[in-house]
Amino acid sequence: MTQTWEQFQDMQPVVLKMFKNSLSKNRLAHAYLFEGMKGTGKKGASLLLAKSIFCLSPIDGYVSCETCLNCKRINHNNHPDVHMIEPDGQSIKKQQIRALQEEFSKTGVESNKKVYVIVHADRMTVNAANSLLKFLEEPHAETTAILITEQSQRMLPTILSRCQSITFKPLSVEIFIEQLKVNGVNEEMAAILARITHNLDEALAYSGDDWFVQAQKIVLKLYEVLKKNPLQAMVTLQEEWFPHFKEKDQLDLGLDILLLLLKDLLYIQLGKGEQMAFVMERNRLEPYSLQSSSRKLTDQITAVLESKRKLQANMNPQLLMEQLVLKMQEGSSFV
């Protein structure tokens, strides 16, 4: 989805101001690190910056016009001097960085300017990262590098030290809900999606997915069973949860939905019902909120967050969920 300066102003006003200052004063860094959560506009921003560098008719000297040949080619990923590298499978390989270096050793096809973007830069192999490091140590005067990551802590400190780091803040829930509504998502679903993901394409995919609708129902049922008939909870896991949340990313999403539910119960206690995700389920959730202490809900939230961490560490999903259900039944402090 093509991003414009106006859209970027709403999403990342601080980053936009920095871009404007650098472009208007012709003081771009030779290498940037765009870091932040998924869906905060990092990839779109990299193309926006590239368009501003190559635009043939910039507005006010630096805002890309979106109509010239260069802007159109960058939007269609076919400008000869703008290169984007993404993981080949699970990682970015040394050969990909070498091919980039060979390409950039040539004279620019249409000017001396060149831009390269590395998406998921944290997924570079050690050899790829070392190859890139040599590239960054001897930058060409008119080359701009943009490294994009959600996990900068996984990158070599020597690479980080050679980049100007720009942090992309999570989108406000209100802005994201409005974006979803403009794209045809009803308000109730938008309220949930805006708290699940910051990625518009991903949110729109979920909005039309029966699997996601069913996932919400299963999460709500599991919580109700825990409250009404704890002994039945393990049966619900076996009969409904595991058959539905089969993949690791599906289970992670299920835990995210459970987190939303627990936070909603806290919001009801605090008199902040307007901040709920499951707005339509308020009458259904209110009795459970009144039956739980804030301490118990906080402990349960902590347990779910710990389960998400264990999931990423590749703990057996079935064992993970069984342990989580037992902890939520206890209602005591969790380590």
UniProtKB/TrEMBL annotation:
Keyword Disulfide bond: no
Catalyzed reactions per annotation: DNA(n) + a 2'-deoxyribonucleoside 5'-triphosphate = DNA(n+1) + diphosphate
Top-level EC class: transferase
Keyword Transferase included in the entry's annotation: yes
Record keywords: DNA replication, DNA-directed DNA polymerase, Nucleotidyltransferase, Transferase
DNA polymerase III delta subunit C-terminal domain boundaries: 243-328
Top-level taxonomic group: Bacteria
Name of this chain's protein: DNA polymerase III subunit delta'
